Amino acid sequence: MRNPLVLLPLALMAGSGWVSAESARIQIVLDVSGSMRSSLGSQVKIDAAKSAIRQTVGGLPDGSVVALRYYGHRVAQERKDESCRDTELVVQFQPLDKPRFLSALDKAVPRGQTPIAYSLQQAAQDFGAPSDEERAMILVSDGIETCGGDPLATVRDLTAKGFKVKVHTIGFDVDAAARAQLEAISGATGGEYFDARSASALAETLGKLTQRALLIKRESAFGEEIRGGAKYDEAVVLKPATTYHLDHHQRRNQYDYFVVEARDGQKIVASTQAFEKGIGIRGEKFEESGIPYAGIAIHAPDQRHIVDKWVAGPGEKATVSLSLGAGQGGRFFILVGNEYDDQHQNNRFDVRLVDLFDANSGRDAGSDDSKAVDIQPGNHTGYLYANDSTDYYALTVSPKAKYNIRIKPGVAEKTIDLEVFDRDAVKVKEVEAANAGAAVRLENLEFAYEGKAYLKVTARQHLAEDLESAYALEVMQVGGETPAAASDKPSAASGPATGEKPGAAAAGAATPVPAPTTASGGSSAMLIGLGVLGVGVLVAGAYLLGRRK
Length: 549
What we know:
Blueprint: H1 7-16, E1 24-31, E2 39-40, E3 43-44, H2 45-58, E4 65-71, H3 80-83, E5 87-91, H4 98-106, H5 116-126, E6 134-141, H6 151-160, E7 166-172, H7 176-189, E8 193-196, H8 199-213, E9 224-226, E10 236-237, E11 244-246, E12 256-262, E13 266-273, E14 279-282, E15 285-288, E16 293-299, E17 305-312, E18 317-323, E19 330-336, E20 348-355, E21 373-375, E22 378-384, E23 390-397, E24 402-409, E25 416-421, E26 427-432, E27 440-445, E28 451-459, E29 469-478, H9 484-488, H10 524-548
Parallel strand pairs: 1-4, 1-6, 6-7, 7-8, 9-11, 10-12, 21-23
Antiparallel strand pairs: 2-3, 4-5, 12-19, 13-18, 13-20, 14-15, 16-17, 16-19, 22-29, 23-28, 24-27, 24-29, 25-26, 25-28
Helix pairs in contact: 2-4, 2-8, 5-6, 6-7
């Protein structure tokens, strides 16, 4: 059943009427040079272009502000100097008068050269003084510049002088050289390039670009503008810790697909914040009004839905997260959109990756001894949560030492158990927490060999397993020598994940803990030191007495 909140914005919009967005200007710059007389399939190129533009204009909403400029349409190619200055604004910027626009379109007859650079200079003046409105130019050409101009240098110069117009380019059955030139033009202005090999492809591309440009736009500080893919295999990579907003409004049930790479032991946190205004989209008409909706979701690498959330209120924020245990990392999909109502492009969203690495290892401690994280005596921090209820650690032990181990959960709701195994997977000892929040402790553990012992830390299965939290792991060695290798570099088991800079895991490695000096666990080193000190005192006293005689 549709959420009743969705009916409210519809009711509000019904009373105000729908209007097209008049805060955008589009100019179509059409190549009418002599090469447009050539055939494309069953049609002449100019006729195919006219047909595509007619179809586009017919679908534009009333009130759209659209201009039309030609080049190469009045002077023959043979009169090159004159033809290279042949460009004309045949329909000025004004609310769209479709009959007049189409009448001007019918008069286009291919004749001259291809003065792209000169035409761009002239077209830049058509837009008038700077404004907050959205401005776009759509350049349709079937060939490369033929008048010696440099279109790329021209748009770069215009941009440097403050010309803020995206130039989208459409290569209409072009060769590689023309495509490269048109791509460079659009790329220098933040626009897009499209290939059109047929009349239908040209019509589709023109329609897409004009519709996109006529969406309500506003200058804002809503983050980096981006457009996602339309499906999983077109998902666009997001940079973590970067604030984004879409470059278009979204219809209900329309989603932009993004992707982020996350490792074992990391948490994906994806957030979206609703704009102060809602948006309504009906057909090709748009209106800023109603309740602002914002939705975001996380899907698994195999495209399974994991979690989603939406809000409906100015400035409200929705956050979803997923913590990844051992073997759970990969490419996760972030979907922006919702099933209840249209979304404004000024909704912000971002993705963060939070490190939950166990014992500063750069990864998650695995759920069996083959994936254990190497540790040495000292203080460490680990994490347990719904997707990671067990951590294994490998501790290098010596028959000359004893070991005290203590684990304390970071929250009162968590219950933790500890088991210790020798190198043959034989359980040496275990202890269960007396109650939630209590520490567990094993003391005076001894091993008859030089090698590794394994610590298994488990969150007891109950409702609190969903509570993500850290725990403190303290390992104290009594007697013997702390293994030097562990303090120098991480072992293969605890090394950084593929692609991480070498040494990243070692940076946070714990340092050896000195032997205790308490009476109960007395240090032989301290006793020897006291004995030496006593002998020194006696020798000094005897010397002084001899001096007095």
